[in-house]
Amino acid sequence: CAFFTGKLNVGVDAVQHGVEGLTYLLTESSKLMISETDFQDSIQVLGFSDDLNKLLVQLYLENRKEIRSILGELAPKLPSYHNLEWRLDVQLASRSLRQQIKPAVTMKLHLHQDDDQTVQVLQTDPSTLLHLIQQLEQALGEMKTNHCRRIVRNMK
């Protein structure tokens, strides 16, 4: 790094920020798989010379698939849903309280990750479960908006 800073007559921070900016530009462009024209439009506003812009476009086109595959390998592998078992328990009375109603929902969630199977046992009260359902339905509704559809389409 000292070699570059001496030859370029710039500080270490400037070189570091330049490398980080270039890395960010290439990874975000590769994630979205933007076209050559869109990439050119994106770097045009940076004020680089035409030769440097052509080199950046060439660098992007040559490496975008490899960058995308590396990003795919770095992504966390999350478990997937397999099965759900549930049970509703209601406590009607106890020694101290003769008349009470205390409901609880117990869920047994079966997950797959690669060839491994895991089980998670969760317990909650019905009001919290209803709130969770509402939040999930709201999130599913958000996925139907044009903004989210555009993002998902660009992620593919």
Quick rundown:
This protein is of the alpha+beta class and 156 residues long.
Describe this structure in words.
The chain has helices at 2-8, 12-32, 36-44, 50-74, 126-143, 146-155, and strands at 80-91, 102-113, 116-124. The protein is of the alpha+beta class and 156 residues long. It folds into three domains: 1-74, no CATH class; 78-124, no CATH class; 126-155. The two termini are 37 Å apart.
* Helix/strand order: HHHHEEEHH
Categorize the overall geometry: elongated
Averaged pLDDT:
85
Overall structural domain count: 3
What's the N-to-C terminus distance?
A: 37 Å
Number of strands: 3
Instruction: Name the poorly predicted regions.
Output: none
Provide the structure class.
alpha+beta
> What percent strand?
15-25%
Give me the Rg, rounded. 27 Å
- Give the fraction of residues assigned to helices: 55-70%
Number of helices: 6
The biggest beta sheet reads: 3 strands, antiparallel
In spatial order, strands of the major sheet run 1-2-3
Pfam family, one: COMM_domain
Organism: Zapornia atra
InterPro entries: COMM, Commd2
Protein name: COMD2 protein
